[in-house]
Every structure is written in C-alpha cells, then in structure tokens.
Amino acid sequence: MFYSLPLEVIGNNRPWVAEILGFHPEYMFDRRFLRPHSDYSRANGAGTRGITRYYLLDEGPIYEVQEYQSWRSQDRYYCFVEGRSLNRLSLEEVWQWLTKSAISASMFCQQRRSG
C-alpha cells in the first residue's frame, strides 16, 4: 500500500523525500531521493506558491523528509508508512532500526555460508 505525501514548494525552497538505505561514512545515511509528481494547478504567476509535489511512499522503508512551512522555516524528519498513516521517528529510532537490519542481514549471510 502506498501513501501520497503532498509537500508545497515555497519560493526557491524545494522539499524532498529520500529513502534511507543504510549508513554512509560521510553523510550519516545512504539515501535514494524520490522523484515527485508536481501539480501546478494552484501555482501563482511567479511560481513561488501553490506548487505541490506528491511523493509516493511505500510500507517498509524509512524516509527522510525536508518540508517547508514558510520561506524561512523548515521541518526535517524521519518517518515510515503503516497502513494509511505516516509515523514519525526520532534519529535514535532510525539508528536502532538500521543497526538491527544490519545485524539481521549479517546473521542471514553467515547462516547461508555455513548451511
């Protein structure tokens, strides 16, 4: 099941959504940025308000979102989809999830090699 996340473009501030793939030595997390579908039907003439970008989020992955509330205010958060709801996560919860996933993958590979 997919969840459609609408984010507004405000001025030159472009929102984005990225799937967290694992750890990265330089940027903390390895990410895959999602391509949005943009709706210009409510845009003003200058294109500084009213443009909405829709991101389709799937159940399972953890996402990082950068959303703008105003020209100077942004909200950056982590989340996952469960059913029809979007659930926020703290940075610590993302680290725990990735660490558990890495341990599980490592144990699976060891079992396959020995079995």
- Report mean pLDDT, rounded to a whole number: 87
* Poorly predicted tracts of residues: 105-109
The SS-based structural class is: alpha+beta
Helicity, as a percent range: 10-25%
Number of helical segments with 4 or more residues: 1
Number of domains: 1
Largest sheet: 5 strands, antiparallel
Beta-strand share of residues: over 45%
What is the multimeric organization of the chains shown? single chain
Offer a concise description of the structure:
This protein is 21% helix and 48% strand.
Features:
alpha+beta; 115 residues; globular
Write up what this structure looks like:
With 115 residues, this protein is α+β, with helices and mostly antiparallel strands. The protein has one domain (2-114). It is 21% helix and 48% strand. It has one helix at 91-114, and strands at 2-9, 16-24, 28-33, 37-39, 51-58, 62-68, 74-82, 85-89. A 5-stranded antiparallel beta sheet has the order 3-2-6-7-8, with helices on one face. Strands 1-5-4 form a 3-stranded antiparallel beta sheet, with no helix packed on it. The radius of gyration is 17 Å and the shape is globular. 15% of the residues are buried. The model is unreliable at 105-109 (pLDDT under 50).
